[in-house]
């Protein structure tokens, strides 16, 4: 494309829209690079919203854009998109070029996360300062409110929203971690939240020497207090939005703050209706306020955790996808790396302490990034996932996101400030585990991973200490509080300093729990008697049962595989091989079951270490389970009660099936003539014999019923040939409907056994033997029919005696 001549914005936009349908992505990006370089911001302003929508898609999902979530490195368009959207690429250059001016771009409030939208629709200013001073009030009413965002905020909002856009169907073979979107998230995080060095400066700045509309912050408040909400229950009305004060010290990291807040608000700020109702409870808010006011007399208070104000969190039913969770995991992983890169001399310094050294805004940001920006919303997001995620192996993505936080236990203060992330979520995981099939290797691996992380050195002791601090009585806390903190040189003692540290630790833990659960929460100790009993008497027993079941199935599979022969192709091998479900999971193979046994073994060891359980009792429990299974308990039916239509499983029976301890003998319970065609049957003959049998049964069904109803010898002989002798036994071995059973017990002629390759082979061998003995086909057929009749006659006369013996 030749160097473009300057055109009116409307013509420029029209030409770009026309090119989008005729040119390749590479050609369009080359044109855009030249346009961004050569056109002034005034002309670029009109095409920016369309360009962002054409890249990331529309917010309602109707326009797909470049499909970044489906674009992988194998695609020839991958490199083109990555170069264009790189943090130092042409698209970001356009953003900075527009950022230097006072351009604003509108986002409808309806596309904001549910809690934020609920705040605004109630006429309340959202807690997140990202949305302050940006509301546009139309004359038509609150429901059509818009947010006016600067170019960088507008770009990041659309980029973040792309992850949760509805109407985007992903293929079954989709791997989100290989997509262009996932890689771009990682690239933006490393660029704007660098673990080493500083954020590269913007190539453009406005005439005032400061960036337009950074995140609002009062110049009189230190950064460490940023993000802390007022304890007051009074709501700030949206018509009284705080003004945006440009803090020169904040200009270095305003893009980092904006990116992080956009990601957190769009990806994590989603709660269920139950959580909304819980957090909206006036009693919870009032209790938290009273507690904070009662502690307000403490000198040198530590900073309150995020989310300690009024929470407005209503959201329609929200179900995050596995891709969503994987991106959140990437965010959390990078934030921990970013926070842990804080310089050692900055770790011990307090933001409020008098110090001659002034850390950079980026270093201050690293200190508070997890606690101030992420902690509350991530906890509620994980709690929602734990409670609503299916009981399958896809939960691994949620699990690893959780464990990534619990592994950061190098400092006791971190454990105290994130106590619920350890204790409450462990208890929810425990409830999931006892309802999960632990014979599956992937599920067993998740139990092992959790037990391994919580068995880290000193972690259990840190959690116990955090729980003790939370349970510290209020009156004792006030009694310990000294009237003033004096240094030894001023006549004080080190004891008062120790009391101050203790009081601060108690306040930190209580503030964390009350902010997330409310002061009226019924806290259940992770190392209390109740939970310890649940672990030792329920969880460990279920793990031990699954471990024994996996070992038994693995050994049995090895035996069956060793006995497999060529004749199984004809249906003459093991019946279990022929009845194997064709869609069986690969996790049920012998090799995976050996891994299950190993994972559960190590999980039991770690759980005993965490909860200080007696190893001898565990060994005795496993020994008792093994001996009971060896005595034949594994062959018993699951616990059932007799109902009107057959057997009904009890809760105990369901747990026995889930853990693999007992099972029903699975049989085909429909019409025997209509069961699926087996691999050892000829499909053409099955269908032919079914038609012949149906005609005979329809024509002579009444006569067969009359014959089989007779109590004499002829009736018994008819029942031998025309009825299923095992139907009554099947009723006792499986929860089979009596109506289905009665329908299938009607006397009938069945020619389907003649379609089996085994039967065909035997008949051919018999006819060949007859030919060798000079018997013709008719004579051989008569001999076969005579032999079959005599066999039936003998079984009718002596069958009962043979069964007795």
From TrEMBL:
GO terms for molecular function: sphingomyelin phosphodiesterase D activity. GO terms for biological process: ceramide biosynthetic process; glycerophospholipid catabolic process; sphingomyelin catabolic process. Pfam families: mit_SMPDase. It is a single-pass membrane protein. It is found in: Membrane. InterPro entries: Sphingomy_SMPD4. One of its GO terms (cellular component) is membrane. The chain crosses the membrane at residues 755-775, 781-799. Keywords: Membrane, Transmembrane, Transmembrane helix. Its main location: membrane. This is Sphingomyelin phosphodiesterase 4. It comes from Dicentrarchus labrax (European seabass). The lineage of its organism: Eukaryota, Metazoa, Chordata, Craniata, Vertebrata.
